[in-house]
From TrEMBL, chain A:
Residues in Mop domain copies: 284-348
Swiss-Prot/TrEMBL GO biological process terms: molybdate ion transport
Molecular-function GO terms, alphabetical: ABC-type tungstate transporter activity; ATP binding; ATP hydrolysis activity
Main location: membrane
Role according to the record: Part of the ABC transporter complex WtpABC involved in molybdate/tungstate import. Responsible for energy coupling to the transport system.
Keyword check for Zinc: no
Enzyme Commission number: 7.3.2.6
Protein name as catalogued: Molybdate/tungstate import ATP-binding protein WtpC
Domain ABC transporter: 2-231
UniProt xrefs under InterPro entries: AAA+_ATPase (IPR003593), ABC_SmlMolc_Importer (IPR050093), ABC_transporter-like_ATP-bd (IPR003439), ABC_transporter-like_CS (IPR017871), Mo/tungstate-bd_C_term_dom (IPR008995), Mop_domain (IPR004606), P-loop_NTPase (IPR027417), Transp-assoc_OB_typ1 (IPR005116)
Annotated family: Belongs to the ABC transporter superfamily. Sulfate/tungstate importer (TC 3.A.1.6) family.
From TrEMBL, chain B:
Encoding gene, per UniProt annotation: cysW_3
Protein name in UniProt: Sulfate transport system permease protein CysW
Signal peptide as annotated in the record: none
NCBIfam families named in the record: ABC_perm1 (NF038017), Mo_ABC_porter (TIGR01581), modB_ABC (TIGR02141)
Pfam family, one: BPD_transp_1
Presence of the UniProt keyword Transmembrane in the record: yes
Subcellular location: Cell membrane; Membrane
Lineage: Archaea, Methanobacteriati, Methanobacteriota, Stenosarchaea group, Methanomicrobia
Family statement drawn from the similarity comment of this UniProt entry: Belongs to the binding-protein-dependent transport system permease family.
InterPro entries: ABC_perm_TupB-like (IPR049783), MetI-like (IPR000515), MetI-like_sf (IPR035906), ModB_ABC (IPR011867), NifC_ABC_porter (IPR006469), Sulph_transpt2 (IPR005667)
Length: 349, 270
């Protein structure tokens, strides 16, 4: 188990502020956040490269805050692989075992075993410069895993790869995690990684952890405006919330949105584009919010269409192209925007 | 229709003029240098090259430059690594101070060394211990070291700066101490840069004149390095010996320059 309590670190322009995290054994833990949020410094501090200004790091109950990196049994994999270019792939993977003065025969055996698990057994005599990005990243993961680390730290391991390689290596990371039961802390700014891999997620912003939970909790109930924007919540508006009998009326200026919340005063609301229903006529339903507007734009975006409707506030809804055609939605024509009270996520401003 | 590019004179006047400047100056440099080598009749040149004075100068130059280069490399590695990696107050100033001897005329550096090792309290103390630097072969090494250390520091610093520190971070998570990571990862990756720096430092110390003249003097068959031999024989009108010393210096310069180019080019691989 990895425990981080009250961790703070200032380094140049980056800061970590009062980071608290607990990662259980064999858990796949993802830290999500934009570039510059301090994620890499957090990993490097866990690895022992930097000494924290305040706070403690524990591994299996032992305080390792002041332990040298070589004695922490923490593996580190960077986005740009950092394979030693003057050594072969086999020498790279065996590097850590060599430091532990393992027998050459045992090193060879362990290297072959882990290389087989990651599908790079045929590349062992090559030098890193001759490998593709995906192969280099597999070698870097093998180099860390062969030591059976207590925690494996992955710093955006998929970001430098092309889309196809990224998808494949993501599946392999999942398989390797299942096969080895290694505790993993994985940094990313890709949302796909979260759903594919994470048991739990922490969202980081400006050096702070702003939310921790399961992927579904983060996605369904973003705790702050930042998390909402980051996780793909697009219809974000700000206004004033008044609560009466448990029901809130949120005045957004042009329209008043109804929902159920206890938050009063200055708030922002977020409604996911996929939770917005469009129609040509108003209709009877359980949904509490219906507004009339005008279609301002229809854009094809991958397999979905994004339809923009101006109701005084600009809404965006995600529809299939078939629905757009069936409803006869056309730019400049009126349309109705409908969404349920429970689709409205409210954050304090 | 605008004029076709093929319709222009070929090569264009622009290209012709610039290339003419390039090749004209190359010819000028080669003629000047080859002219010096070809000036004395070959038998006279060979005889001068084999003269005891030139042989002494070659040996003294090789020994002193080898020692001072070794000292430069040994001292420059920690200095260059610190300047490249560590942040500490006054880092910029430290950088500037290490560049001072680059901008300073070697004669001035020589005078400063002469004062420091001669009449100063430190110089007197060394003298009392039997370590005479002024006007001795030891002075040659001291002068070469002082003047050439900044070159080695500069090249080594840029070699370390091109190496991502994350290589060391990874090595340390894999079980290396700081020393181990430096020896097993950083030094091998900096190897070509360090070799390039070593060669240029050695070549410069072989040719060092001003600082050596000031601190070690120009005593025939005692502190007579190749440049000093060139100077002494020129001033006594012994042109053949002077040219012999020059020819050796030309060969050393060209050879070390080609080695430097080779290693400093491949350095970008990492």
């Amino acid at each position: 188990m990895l425990g981080i309590a009250g961790l703070s670190k200032r380094l140049g322009d980056f800061t970590l502020t009062d980071v608290n995290l607990t990662v259980a054994d064999a858990e796949y833990f993802i830290i999500l956040g934009p570039t510059g949020a301090g994620k890499t410094i957090l990993l490097e501090t866990i690895a022992g490269i930097y000494a924290p200004d305040a706070g403690t790091i524990t591994l299996d109950g032992l305080d390792v805050t002041a332990t040298d990196p070589k004695d922490r049994e923490v593996g580190m994999v960077y986005q740009d692989y950092m394979l030693f270019p003057h050594l072969t792939v086999a020498e790279n993977i065996g590097f850590g075992l060599l430091q532990r003065k393992a027998e050459p025969a045992r090193i060879r055996e362990s290297v072959q075993e882990i290389a087989g698990l990651l599908g790079i057994g045929h590349l062992l005599e090559r030098t890193p410069g001759t490998l593709s990005g995906g192969e280099q990243q597999r070698a870097a993961i093998a180099r860390a895993l062969v030591l059976r680390p207590r925690v494996l730290l992955l710093d955006e391991p998929l970001s430098a790869l092309d889309a196809v390689t990224r998808d494949r290596l993501r599946e392999e990371l999942k398989a390797v995690h299942r096969a080895t039961g290694t505790t993993v802390v994985h940094i990313t700014h890709h949302f796909e990684d979260v759903f594919a891999l994470a048991d739990r997620v922490a969202v980081m912003q400006d050096g702070r952890i702003v939310q921790t939970g399961t992927p579904d909790e983060i996605f369904r109930r973003p705790a702050t405006e930042f998390v909402a924007a980051f996780t793909g919540m697009e219809n974000v508006y700000c206004g004033v919330s008044r609560v009466r009998n448990g029901e809130a009326a949120i005045d957004l200026g042009e329209i008043v949105v109804r929902t159920v919340t206890a938050i009063e005063g200055d708030v922002c609301v977020g409604i996911r584009p996929e939770e917005v229903i469009l129609s040509r006529q108003p209709f009877e339903s359980s949904a509490a919010n219906t507004f009339r507007g005008t279609v301002t734009a229809i854009r094809q975006n991958g397999i979905f269409s994004r339809v923009f409707v101006d109701t005084g506030l600009p809404f965006v809804a995600v529809l299939t192209p078939q629905s757009v055609a069936r409803l006869g939605l056309v730019e400049g024509e009126p349309a109705y925007v409908t969404f349920k009270a429970s689709a409205v996520h409210v954050f304090k401003r | 229709m605008p004029p076709n590019r093929d319709a222009l004179p070929h090569p264009t006047p622009f290209k012709a003029l610039f290339l003419a400047a390039l090749f004209g100056l190359i010819a000028y440099m080669v003629v000047v240098i080859v002219g010096l080598v070809a000036y004395p009749p070959l038998p006279a040149l060979l005889e001068s090259l084999a003269s005891p004075e030139i042989l002494f100068a070659v040996e003294l130059s090789l020994v002193t430059s080898a020692i001072s280069t070794a000292l430069c490399v040994t001292a420059a590695v920690p200095v260059a690594y610190s300047l490249a990696r560590f942040s500490f107050p006054g880092r910029r100033i430290a950088n500037t101070i290490f560049n001072i001897p680059l901008a300073l005329p070697p004669l001035v550096a020589g005078v400063a060394l002469l004062i420091f090792y001669g009449p100063s309290a430190f110089g007197q103390m060394l003298s009392a211990w039997g370590l005479d630097v002024v006007y001795t072969p030891l002075g040659i090494i001291v002068a070469q070291f002082f003047v050439n250390l900044p070159y080695m520091v500069r090249v080594a610093r840029s070699a370390f700066e091109t190496i991502n520190p994350r290589y060391e971070y990874v090595a340390r998570t894999l079980g290396c101490t700081e020393w181990g990571a430096f020896r097993q990862v950083t030094l091998p990756l900096a190897r070509n840069g360090l070799i390039a720096g070593l060669v240029i430092t050695w070549s410069k110390s072989i040719g060092e004149f001003g600082a050596v003249l000031m601190l070690a003097g120009a005593t025939q068959m005692k502190t007579e390095t190749l440049p000093i031999a060139l100077f002494l024989n020129m001033s006594t009108g012994d042109l053949d010996l002077a040219i012999a010393a020059s020819v050796i210096l030309i060969v050393i310069s060209v050879a070390s320059l080609s080695v430097f180019e080779r290693y400093s080019d491949t350095r970008e691989v990492f």
